[in-house]
Structures are given as structure tokens and as C-alpha cells.
Amino acid sequence: MNIWHRTATLAELNEMSGSCMPGHLGVEISEIGDDYLQATMPVDQRTRQPMGILHGGASVVLAETLGSIAANMVVDGEKYYCVGQEINANHLRPVPEGIVTGTARPIHIGRRSQVWEIRITEAGGKLSCISRITMAVVAHGE
């Protein structure tokens, strides 16, 4: 079942965040499924911490980017917009290089809030981070 209120192309979504933090870190929306949104991010000099592995903050940027875009695609953008209220992340496996892929799926889509789970895997498919974001659904003019 398709959950999206509005449809967008991958090019439109990537252009939207190209000149802000996700773009600076190389985040690219790569797939829009019926009930999920997926993006990739390189593990390189922009996203590593001093120990040479993927920085936890970069994983959170990937997770928040996916959750925020997905949340806003679910609502009627003429009436509502979504903003982050809380995010958490459990970093499970170090990733020293390559590409990580994040996949956001809804846990709860309500009238005033949404909760999304984002799973981030390394190139071999092993889970490196799991995150959950709570989004507030705000009416324009509130």
C-alpha cells in the first residue's frame, strides 16, 4: 500500500537537500518504495571520526534526513509540515569505508505526530545503526 501523499522524483528530493548538510555529506536519496524511503551516504573524510570509522553524528544526519523527508511526503504539504521532535540512534557496528544505506519505514503515522525507524546498513548488508525519529505534524500558521 502506497503511503505517500505527494510524489517526488529522486532528482527533486536530492536537489532539495543538495546545498545543505545532507548534500555536504554526500547523502543521496536512492529509492522510493510504497512504504519506505532509502538513501546512501559515503564513508569518507567528510563522514569519518578521528578513529577512522563512520561518525555517529553522520549516521544521525542520514537518519534525520530520511525521516524528515519521508514524514513531509506523507502529509498534505498545502496544510501541514513536519519537524523533528526527538531522535535516537544505536551504533552497532563500525564502518571504516564504503557506502552505507539507510532505509526509513513508518512505525506510526498520526494526525499530530509520526514515528519512523531508520536502519542503516554497511555495503555487506550488516546493520551498523538503528535510529528512531519522532516528527511533529504542524499546521501552517500554527
From TrEMBL:
Spans traversing the lipid bilayer: none
Record domain Thioesterase: where: 51-129
Pfam families: 4HBT (PF03061)
UniProtKB keywords: Hydrolase
KW Hydrolase (keyword) present: yes
GO terms assigned for molecular function: 1,4-dihydroxy-2-naphthoyl-CoA thioesterase activity
GO cellular component, one term: cytosol
Family: Belongs to the thioesterase PaaI family.
PANTHER family, sorted: 1,4-DIHYDROXY-2-NAPHTHOYL-COA THIOESTERASE 1
Record's protein name: 1,4-dihydroxy-2-naphthoyl-CoA hydrolase
Organism this protein belongs to: Microbulbifer yueqingensis
